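User: Batch of two.

Assistant: Item 1 of 2:
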Amino acid sequence: MLGASNGQGSKWNVTSGNHIQAAELVTVQEAGPTPPGDYQDSVAVQGPPRVGRAWFVQHHRWRYRGGAYEVHFLQADRKGGHYAGGRDNDAIVRHRVPDQASALPGSAADGQAALGARRGDDGYFTLHARPTGRRNPANEPGGFALPAGTHLYNTGLPTQDNGRVLQSSRDREHAGRGRTGGTGRGVVNGMPAFTNRRDEGFCQRWDIEGNGTDTVRFRLPKARCLMGLLDRKGHGKAVMFDCGLTGLARWRLLTFGNKQYQVRSIPLGLCLDVGTSTNPRDVSNLELNPCKAKAGQHWYRAPRPTPTSSPISTGTT
């Protein structure tokens, strides 16, 4: 976040607030000297030095645009050994209070601690890596000792303004949920979503999952989710990716009042578009374009298919 203020106002309000409205969880690096909102409690953690504020996680409740969000904040900035204030601190923002807040000591002698928060089986950590330069970014996540039952999970998506992946996250194994294992019947990460003639096939059946807000995500049953990625100014592409908590998989359905909808990407502000496909037999990649009242952005929410007859056996009995 490059500090808590941009000189004109709080970055929590102008940046992080938009993210947490579109996602279930937001991890923040360079979160500024103190957490936003009202103090709730502090949790002592093992591992970081017992100096200043380094040895406990601060829990604040932050109210933003009518919502209340749980902020857990770790003093990771050394500040000359005093561990109080500074910019390079970490935070995790959630809609609900996690079951556990924790911290892992730095994996390098001059590295910073990682902040973690777990709810149920889902545990996430965030850290501010050492400033080793853009040409040689630090790979500190790989140096942390993995807690039992976890593995290194890297989305492959850019996490910095220069488009590189400079950080990774840790996620507890989700056996059988299709989030971190398997290919979802051939649907692999990064595969483009495309439009084709309706045939009631597996890849045309979508679960529409809500999160208690007016946003949804589209998920192939037990497989991956539809995600929007910006590929140039004012244009994006629709791809399939692991169903994590990223805001890139959040969409809003805007009704036209005739059982048709416009599908708008929350983080990009662009709408799902068939692009140049005009023939129903076309197999063309979907696009994300500026939202307009045109036929290529009208989507029909079809009912689930129902079996019409029993299969006919051709074998002998």
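Item 2 of 2:
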Amino acid sequence: MFSLWVARLGKLGDAGCGVLVVAVLSLPLVLVTLASLPAVAVLPLLRGDGSKARRIVEQLTSWTEVLVSRGR
């Protein structure tokens, strides 16, 4: 079954590879984003922990940028 996917991917070329990368990596990115929402909402309210929330958002942003750049 895997060889069938590889054969189809070879026919699609770079565009197919980009679509496959985005399809595979989108679900984990969505799950991590949803899991971090409570932390991003609560950490700025605690004393001195706004920097942790900022780092979480920066990391999610960088992961999204990588995902978008690989999908092109």
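The radius of gyration is 17 Å.
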